[in-house]
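Onboarding guide, step 5: your first structure request.
Type a short instruction followed by the sequence, for example:

Predict the 3D structure of this protein.
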Amino acid sequence: MRTIDVRTDRRTEFVDITADVRRAVREERLTDGAVVVYSPHTTAAVTVQENADPDVVHDLLLWLNGNIPKDVPGFRHAEGNSDAHLKSCLVGPSVLVPVAGGELVLGRWQGVYFCEFDGPRRREVKVQTIGNKL
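The system replies with structure tokens like these:
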């Protein structure tokens, strides 16, 4: 298992970690199988989304932040980050990406993103390869 270190600069942001995941697959010498990309944080998530147009990430964050604002009357969690827990629950803690011929099987416009909902922070993403290795 590999660990990717991610440093975030804003309270909510998506960080493209595709190159880091590709590097982990290469270093693990995985030829065919899959890679699990997992966030061990309850206020962050991982997703596969378009990485060609930055407006897509902007729009996703705009919707998430608009529909799940930070200060909702009635939230009781003492740390004041209930919105981040809810956002991470909706997006999910992990993705499974196929690997063929040593390469991630992603669509033309897809990338793997770490999703920060309670930053800025230093975070970790765990990467586990499964399958045939050289």
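Each response can be followed by summary notes, for example: The chain has a mean pLDDT of 96.
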